Amino acid sequence: MGLFGKRKPPLSNEELDKVVERIQHAESRTTGELRVFVEAKCNYVNAMDRAKEVFAELGMVETERRNAVLIYMAYDDHQFAIIGDKEIYEQAGGPEFWKVAAQHLQEHLRNGEMTKGLCVCVDELGNALAQHFPYDPAVNKNELPDEIVFGK
How many domains are there within the chain? Predict the structure, then answer.
């Protein structure tokens, strides 16, 4: 154990479960995939650059229908980014949709409501995925894990 002990995780187990439940609910209505990646610090000036890197590292560019979405968050640096693969980015409405989704998340984060913000954001992104890539019984596989991924 270091001099200052272990770092407190940004979300409790109960909060993690809430976010994962929202992810699973959202994905039950679509062929799309949603992931959340959380780390303390962003090693890039622009969080979107790190989000693009994480998107690729998590294999999100390899989904069959190119409809994966990532919420990236660096909580100590107060940075986040939302990135969607080619198909969902375009079909959800291009830059304006993503800007509005980011504003909604940012409002909650400013109020210290990380869990609520993530849940609201997952629901909003899930609605877009369900609208443009509805559940298809012929595609009944979960291509990517649902749990929140923690970086360094």
Answer: 1
